[in-house]
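User: Quick sanity check before I run a bigger batch. Here is a single chain. Can you write out its predicted 3D structure?
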Amino acid sequence: MYALFSGASPFDKYVAVSPTTGLSNGMLFQMAAAYLAAHDDLAARLFICAGSEEMKTEEAAMFGFTSGVTRLTELLAQRGYRSLVVESRIMDGESHHSIFPRAVMDGLLHAFGKSAHAAR
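Assistant: Done. Predicted structure follows.
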């Protein structure tokens, strides 16, 4: 997520699995707000996700995995970038430790314009 909002990223495809948004005094949201205010478009494909179980434990909730994914998705939707393709998911039944195989597979399929459902 840092690379996406840094303004100097060489990438146009991003997979963010359970990004930590609850630390550093909201630094990621500050970066996002600054980028959103300064740019008219964002040519990128973003897959962002967290697991539904990540909001059910005190330890995981402290990191803001699930709420951060929701908030970032909403911020990007409100901005309405023409060239940005976002797929956002809260993966049912997944914890911070179990989410990675499914998230990486689905994320890479999205990043390269494939349907996760067609691949199964």
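Helices lie at 2-5, 27-38, 58-62, 65-79, 100-111, 116-119.

User: Great, the batch can go ahead then.
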